Amino acid sequence: MTLSDSRPDTAPSPTISAAPAKTGPVIALLVVAAFVVILNETIMGVALPSLMVDLDITAATAQWLTTGFLLTMAVVIPLTGTLLARFTVRQVFFTAMTLFAIGTLIAALAPGFGMLLVGRIVQASGTAIMMPLLFTTVLNVVPPTHRGRMMGVISIVIAVAPAIGPTVSGLILSALDWRWMFWLVLPIALVAIALGALWVRNVTETRDARFDILSVVLSALGFGGLIFGLSSIGESASGHTPVPVWIPMIVGAASLIAFVVRQLVLQRTDAALLDLRTFRSRSFSLAVVLVIVVMSALFGSLILLPIYLQQVLSLDTLTVGLMLLPGGVLMGIIAPVVGSLFDRFGPRPLVLPGMVVAAAALWGMTTFGEGTSVSWIIAVHMALNLGLGFVFTPLLTSALGSLPQRLYSHGSATVSTLQQVAGAAGTALFITLMSVGGAAAAASGADPVGAVASGVHTAFFVGALVASVAVVLAAFVRKPVSESQAQDAVR
Fold first, then answer.
1. What's the rounded Cα separation, in Å, for the pair 489 and 491?
2. How much is the pLDDT for 9?
3. Using H for helix, E for strand and C for coil, what is the string for the chain?
4. Is 19 exposed, middle or buried (0-12, 13-18, 19+ CB in 10 A)?
5. Which of 28, 399, 11 is nearest to 205 (CA)?
6. What pLDDT sits at residue 20?
7. Which of 80, 223, 287, 457 is the most exposed place for a label (fewest CB within 10 A)?
8. Using CA atoms, how far apart are residues 114 and 312, in angstroms rounded to an integer?
9. What is the per-residue pLDDT for 38?
């Protein structure tokens, strides 16, 4: 792959080639592979205390194993729109899974923190490519009348894999060393590569898309700076951050503005790294806004609930992991059902009640305190995942299905990038609100446990307010338009 300055490129965007007669095995393999790689996004959270002891590192240092992963994802994902236009599905798949397998092996063999971080970064490079690849493949081989059902399956990857990451980590750590989190995943990655050699076929035509070096740099600084800044907010609240939070935030925001301006110029000749004409589609823009809200709520609750359960209710990591499992399983069960309902009824009858349930669940979490019963916590968490499960599939299908085919790869890259930013923003928002609320309670004389409980209440209260606003936006979600209408919408 050669990086060079962009030049006018008027060749047509990827189009459907003769799709293989049986696309089921290909999509199934991509879904399983994506599930495994996305699972690693949240699998390290519960393991950090063990790593701190084994590697003799501080919490601030250990957090880089997650922050570094997110940063790498934020830098690589914007490149995938051009990658998927320039290279075949087989080439991209083998590159992604090989990077993930190599990174997993490095992490499993890591003698210390430095090499473990390298392994996580290589893992993330492969992970970042898989979701846009899965989206683009499905959009190319699945007819619009069946996309809802297929997006329902993809929702299992996007929402359930991160949700059960802490559970898987807790189960492994209850019986084995932390290295087994990587040793157990490596054979699955190798099997996926072997099956890919048999099943994965090319379903798009490539074009001579060029990488604009300036866009790559601005993208890395923009998305990477924002993710780093957002991820550092929680650490800064407790006094652990290598640089002031405002520095990466300002650098990230300024670079992102420059990146957007650069893309608006380059897309006139179809040479943009990330084509922003996707946002000319009203359905895409609205769905993306709601996806950001939903991902923020999901990742915010994923980071906050384990802290609450361990620090306020004094539960061990295995118990915490098992308590979060029913919600993840429920979301996985309903996702294909929601996809089928979408194909029949469209998005609004699903998104609107789903957002209502999710908002109600977040309001329910504001009742969590020092004496809250385990059964109530599990029930509310399941309600949150139920509501989000009814929202994910219709939003993703509405967003990507409203685009013309030539923008599929750029749309999937945009959605995947903003999911990472939203996840980091949700984590930062919830942790910061918890820290501020807890500090205020402590200043008023609350004991340490009571202060944490008060901070958790503050975070969930603000989250519930944001979700309530999203309920109003959900009423405006529309069914994806036809291909010809999508072409007209983005011109």
1. 6
2. 40
3. CCCCCCCCCCCCCCCECCCCCCCHHHHHHHHHHHHHHHHCCCCCCCCHHHHHHHCCCCHHHHCHHHHHHHHHHHHHHHHHHHHHHHCCHHHHHHHHHHHHHHHHHHHHHCCCHHHHHHHHHHHHHHHHHHHHHHHHHHHHHCCHHHHHHHHHHHHHHHHHHHHHHHHHHHHHHCCCCCCHHHHCCHHHHHHHHHHHHHHCCCCECCCCCCCCHHHHHHHHHHHHHHHHHHHHHHHHHCCCCCCCCHHHHHHHHHHHHHHHHHHHHHHHHCCCCCCHHHHHCHHHHHHHHHHHHHHHHHHHHHHHHHHHHHHCCCCCHHHHHHHHHHHHHHHHHHHHHHHHHHHHHCCHHHHHHHHHHHHHHHHHHCCCCCCCCHHHHHHHHHHHHHHHHHHHHHHHHHHHHCCCHHHHHHHHHHHHHHHHHHHHHHHHHHHHHHHHHHHHHHHCCCCHHHHHHHHHHHHHHHHHHHHHHHHHHHCCCCCCCCHHHHHHHCC
4. middle
5. 11
6. 42
7. 457
8. 33
9. 81
| Spatial separation of the C-alpha atoms in residues 96 and 88, rounded to whole Å | 12
Q: How far apart are CA 387 and CA 358, in angstroms?
A: 5
Phi, psi for 204 (deg, rounded to 5): -130, 160
- Please report the pLDDT score of residue 11 as a whole number: 37
**Cβ atoms of 65 and 48 closer than 8 Å:** yes
Ramachandran region, residue 314 (left: φ > 0; alpha: ψ -120 to 50; beta: rest): left
User: How high is the mean pLDDT in each 10-residue block of the chain (491 residues)?
Assistant: 37 38 74 84 74 77 77 83 82 93 95 92 91 81 78 73 76 85 92 88 70 86 82 61 80 93 87 85 87 81 80 82 83 84 87 93 91 93 90 83 82 82 77 82 86 88 88 82 51 57
- Please classify residue 420 by burial: count the beta carbons closer than 10 Å to its beta carbon, then call 0-12 exposed, 13-18 middle and 19+ buried: buried
Is there a contact between 148 and 393 (Cβ–Cβ < 8 Å)?
yes
Confidence at residue 467, expressed as pLDDT on a 0 to 100 scale = 87
CA distance 431 to 445: 21
Amino acid at 456: V
From 445, 46, 51, 427, select the one nearest 237 (Cα to Cα): 427
Q: Is residue 3 within 8 Å of 273, Cβ to Cβ?
A: no
Looking at residue 444, its pLDDT comes to 86
Q: Name the one residue in this structure whose structure tokens are 């290279």.
A: 87
